[in-house]
Amino acid sequence: xxxxxxxxxxxxxxxxxxxxxxxxxxxxxxxxxxxxxxxxxxxxxxxxxxxxxxxxxxxxxxxxxxxxxxxxxxxxxxxxxxxxxxxxxxxxxxxxxxxxxxxxxxxxxxxxxxxxxxxxxxxxxxxxxxxxxxxxxxxxxxxxxxxxxxxxxxxxxxxxxxxxxxxxxxxxxxxxxxxxxxxxxxxxxxxxxxxxxxxxxxxxxxxxxxxxxxxxxxx
Length: 219
Prior knowledge:
Mean pLDDT: 89
Oligomer: single chain
Structural class: mainly alpha
Number of helices: 10
Distance between the termini: 51 Å
Helix content: over 70%
């Protein structure tokens, strides 16, 4: 097997490995931690799995992340690309945010902001950064990564999102986000804009508050 074939195989199976490792972490967390804090060790397992994939990619495949990906605001993307691939995904969760923000204590917003800063770096770094290097055609790469990104929200978070009225819109919206963010990446090779867009998605989704068990009963 050539090095390109090995790289392709690793990058294709890496999301599956992340799903499995994270699921093991979730099963451990919900067994040994209280419901309202079980999401914390679960996400630690998720970030550990992503970090492990980056370590393998760097150690054994020497992927040129820094040489091929940008983390700069400049140059500004064309307005059409910026609007459809960055602004639109960031605004999708407003339908959740607007009616439910009143249920979240003001002092809890601080924790939501912290989560919203951390999570996009890991998720965009993996789903749109590392997986950008899958050596397959662009359309297939978009569909493959967006499909698994969407599925991960069911596979990981079904323990918290146990209401179909929450879960189904989440799966649909995250698939759309995954498509648009990878489309942007293939056009710009710039991760900073998907990270910024993802920050607003996580903040508007009240992600931490949902996992903490503060607002699900209101959906």
